[in-house]
Amino acid sequence: MIFPLIEDALLHGGRALVATPRRDVVLELKPRIEKAFPAERVVTLYGGSPERWGEGRITLATTHQLLRFDRAFALVIIDELDAFPYHNDPMLHRAAERVCRRGGVFVFLSATPPEAMQRQVRRGTLRHARVPVRYHRHPLPVPARVAMPAVASCVARGSLPGALVSRMAESVKRGAQVFIFITRIRQVERVVRLLQRHFPEIRVEGTSAADAQRGDRVLRFRERDIRMLVTTTILERGVTVPKSDVYILDADDKLFDEASLVQMAGRAGRSKDDPAGKVVFGSRQWDRSQRRAVRQIREMNRLARRRGYLLPAYNGGRWRIG
């Protein structure tokens, strides 16, 4: 979606910047941008980056790195603007505004923009483009719910509910890479051990913000060495792994709001070769955040269908065979 914007800036002799709050997303973007623009040098900037003194016509950076620049870019794209630490940080907002040269193009990008920005859109005071469909033109996967005890209870008794394990087994059988999102870092290793007992035939590992090997584990997950990855919301955004299914446990926890549920669900169905990935909310209660997240995803699919963006094969919520 952003490639034509970058290409236009480069063709007019300018430099392009894509900034995002999280280092993981910067590292995720680099190979994709390099593949799309093989003739350009792509520089990545984040805390501890070996390229921090390098220059290229395309720069990928965490939002804190924007403090280094002044009117340097013809195109500035702020991705995941609602994510920490960019969200609600006036210093970073001012830095972002300052890096775009006069007459340049400044773009915000997010699947879950803040409510204040949504109000501006509804009032018509903020120009916007709403994209309700992915490039492969298939509907977004709609989450299903599995009623289950809290993760803490499952860990204490040493087992997961049969209905959840059965769905996970289907994901493994179909060859999917399985994201398991949970709320607390301290539970990651305990849940990993539980899943290893249920699925001894595959490699199950965990990661979080406290994991020094996070980048390596995500790479091994993408390469299918790790088949099931237990993680916190550190991987809710910007990570694209082909043929992924997503399980969100304790989906009714207050730490998972509507936006984070939508973002985590968005890890599924991203590939054109597997556009109908599975998303499961595991929870004790069917709360407001889960209902609103499902409503938002369904609304995007309705909008895509109404505007004719979906493939012709998709009609009225069912795939036609033959």
Question: How does this model look, in words?
Answer:
The chain is of the alpha/beta class. It has 10 helices and 13 strands. It has helices at residues 3-11, 23-36, 90-99, 115-123, 151-157, 162-173, 188-198, 214-222, 258-265, 288-306; strands at 16-20, 42-45, 58-62, 73-79, 100-109, 144-147, 177-181, 204-206, 228-231, 244-249, 279-283, 314-315, 318-319. It has a 6-stranded parallel sheet with strand order 6-11-10-7-9-8, sandwiched between helices. Strand 12 (314-315) and strand 13 (318-319) form a beta hairpin.
- Extended strand count: 13
The coarse overall form would be globular
Name the average pLDDT.
Answer: 92
Radius of gyration: 20 Å
| Low-pLDDT regions | 317-322
Largest sheet at a glance? 6 strands, parallel
The total count of helices amounts to 10
Order of helices and strands: HEHEEEHEHEHHEHEHEEHEHEE
Q: Which band does the percent of strand residues land in?
A: 15-25%
- The class by helix and strand makeup works out as alpha/beta
Give the helix proportion (percent range): 25-40%
Biggest sheet, strands in spatial order?
6-11-10-7-9-8
**How far is the N terminus from the C terminus?**
31 Å
